[in-house]
């Protein structure tokens, strides 16, 4: 079928704005789904509708909101598996044809090491299984998970790159290639998947995308070219750093430690180029210039003030 109407949950979050823009640019009719208690302003472009439902997402309210919708995209944190199951169940009941879950991983949750190290990837892995079971029992329902590598241009500090102070941490020799994506590329991939909903290669599977594949040292050299300055580098033993941060995850410093462990995983287990499901060509996604991306980041007002 042709996807025309799309509901997006998480439009005001980290990834949501980029996905919303890509959907609008691709001429989908978009409904933004929000909690009734949400205080984020409805500053959406003309033609985008906003629907609020009770905070506990009761099934009748979800089913009412999803009536006559062709696709549902979720960009809230992937840890909220219970809510995603509610959403998927309502999607099946109302005839939604394509579900794109809150996957968008720095690393693939099929990785045993990722699941061992970070509970988030257990949640994502198990929810893929839930979607698979739903699609097997409901031929009109399908799903696509997107794995994109690190969100490269969201905040370089997450990747241990302090652009303002010209410093960076490097794992071991910094010579392992890893895929990463800009927010705009991720949004475009989502829109392209919906545009190819009839293509079996997008249905009931995980697709991998990237803006580029580069080593950590490639990235640092690109930032050095963009700034005209040399960066001060701190070498880190990657496995020892991950071990220490995993211990901190168990003792209470959960959020920051988890982000650091994901950083390590995304540096060592995220080269999609030879993976089954690498979908840049399928989706017509052209890789972006690392130099141009780094230049844009350096020229952002927040960086110029540093």
From TrEMBL:
The keyword NADP applies. Transmembrane segments: none annotated. The keyword Oxidoreductase applies. Keywords: NADP, Oxidoreductase. GO terms for molecular function: oxidoreductase activity. It holds the Pfam family NmrA. Residues 4-239 form the NmrA-like domain. InterPro entries: NAD(P)-bd_dom_sf, NmrA-like, NmrA/Isoflavone_reductase-like, PCBER-like. PANTHER family: NMRA-LIKE DOMAIN-CONTAINING PROTEIN-RELATED (PTHR47706:SF9), NMRA-LIKE FAMILY PROTEIN (PTHR47706). This is NmrA-like domain-containing protein.
